Amino acid sequence: MKKFAYLSLGLALACSTPKSDQQSFSVAQRDSLFQEDAASSKEDDLMGTDLEKSLQEQGLVDIEQEIPGIQVELKYSTEDNFFKQDVYGNMIRCYLQPLAAEMLAKAQKALQEEYPNLSLLVYDGVRPIRVQQILWDGLDKPDSLKPLYVSDPKIGGLHNFGVAVDLTILDLKTGKPLDMGTPFDYFGYPAYPDRELQMLAEKKITKVQVANREILRKVMKGAGFTGIGSEWWHFNAYSRKEAGEKFPLIQ
Q1: CATH number for the domain harbouring residue 227
Q2: What pLDDT, on a 0 to 100 scale, did the predictor assign at position 203?
Q3: Can you say whether residue 124 is alpha, beta or left, with left for phi > 0 and alpha for psi between -120 and 50 degrees?
Q4: What secondary structure does DSSP assign to 107-131, as a single string?
């Protein structure tokens, strides 16, 4: 049984496009994409502990070993993601490039210095190309439209270089994430940082929810990360150009 690595209490997706535009998969389609059988057992193993070994061999670091107190709940190691499938297998630990992990450590330190009862809670870090390929192949859209939903594994997105992170803030007293106005992986205007004033005016989100997002943005941007306009939870350590120059795609 999986053991999620945030809090001693044992509590406890491709950053995509609006869910209204996302492809719905039937049970039969998902089963055909992710069916486990004896012939694919070795490949399935790679989506667990062997995958972690591969990430370590490629120079990535386990952020929980590098960053005191940080919490992790890998959404792609659950069914709480875009594809409603566990594509990481037994892997429950989050990996990043060492330089990105150093930046994240600064954000965690800044957060806990100002708010000792809060911690960063990471939902996804590196997403190996082999996992990105699963998502790409499983999306029932023409190849020309797939980049609207997931990054093309032939090109790679910043998660595939190990320099992007999806995260929120955890209240250590309650064991629950702060209210950000929408769940993680909610793809609609209420989740867009660029639309916050509009969403406030339309009463789709509240000032308290925006204030919680501001705490996250403050510590992440203070550590050198940049956000994006459509996902309050997504932050990049480098631009796509910089990542391509500094790092290989993670296999």
Answers
A1: 3.30.1380.10
A2: 98
A3: beta
A4: HHHHHHHH-TTEEEEEEE----HHH
